[in-house]
Design brief:
The protein is an alpha/beta fold and 388 residues long. It has two domains: 132 residues, NAD(P)-binding Rossmann-like Domain (Rossmann fold, 3-Layer(aba) Sandwich); 210 residues, 2-Layer Sandwich (Dihydrodipicolinate Reductase, domain 2). Helix content is 32%, strand content 25%. It is built from eleven helices and 17 strands. The strands form three sheets. The chain has a nine-stranded mixed sheet with strand order 16-15-14-13-7-12-11-8-17. Strands 3-2-1-4-5-6 form a six-stranded parallel sheet, sandwiched between helices. Strands 9-10 form a two-stranded antiparallel sheet. Helix 1 packs across helix 10, helix 5 runs antiparallel to helix 11 and helix 9 crosses helix 11. 51% of the residues are buried. The mean pLDDT is 96.
Length: 388
Amino acid sequence: MPRTLRIGTIGAGWMGTAHAVALRQAVLVFGSAPAVPEFHVLCDKRTDVAAAEARRLGFARWTGDWREVVDDPAVDVVDLTTTNESHPEIALAALARGKHVWCEKPLANAAADALAMTRAAEAAGVVTLVGYNYLRNPAIAYVRELIRAGELGEITLFRGTFDIDHMADPGMAFSWRHDRALAGTGALGDTGSHVLAFALALVGDIDQVVGHLATFIPERPVASSGSGQTARARGDEPRRAVENDDVCQFLLRFRNGAMGVIETSRIATGRKLWLTFEVQGSKGSAFFTQERMSEIQLYRAADPPAERGWKTVLLHPAHPGYAAFSPIQGNALGYADLKVLEARELLCAIGEGRPADPDFRFGWKVAQAVDAVERSAKERRWVATAEV
């Protein structure tokens, strides 16, 4: 019999809904799991939202106080989908009580906090998972396997981007994502962290970085409704200064000798979800974009000279995780499917008694690189990740 995991979700917004749906779908799509979720309690400081969403999503009860969730002896997993600055306090409290923790990215706004969370998790011996859902794509798993098997040879260069234009309009409302105390960095930590996750997962640990940041829209109108991605302004509200970066560029040196370059912008006019990477090696290269998330562009130098060129590899049942969604090659997956695969990883890791991928230590390495880039931009020099 599969183990029952009682879920306590903190945060009833868009991401809280995504997590709850993914947990339910993870069992339905795959047909079985070594552990199954039971929706025990939903928390949000907006108590009216908590109550309504608990009823809609099938939670047994709701609360407006996150401490009730972590203190509840019945809760096995604390599912954390709140704003960035709250992650350390809540996660550390949950870990101190021996709870497994599923935390949305970024793990923390500061590498020091992320390291404290990592050490607490490892001391507690529990399963942790960070919500870098783009890593769960079977296409990414395929490229990781190619690299580990030596199919691309010695990796020489990683090039990654995350350009998106959802904040390109200067009239878009100020939200918590523009607030330094709540969000930390801007494009660097929000979108850039996803590219760093690709870099770490595919190429390995980062040794040094050098970069620069810029804010091109210095102020925005205060929101009259909504929050985060749903924040809206009428146009006549007072304006507030933006406290973090709109655009970021940086170079990387990996510990294995590979080089890298990452660019990210949240005001990239015309780009909707231009999350990409290209990994170049001595035997071949691979390219991916989230805008065509069910395919990989692959080049093999060993092909006959007359046939050398990039080819498109469509997702196939042989790629890890894909067969549960379709028995036919080429059927496109979606964003929500990646969350299902992420939730599946959580259930399997806990049920099988193994670490989840990516765990808090991975999340700390991302935070460490983010802090190093920010320090580099301030001090105008190469910064070793070990410095932070």
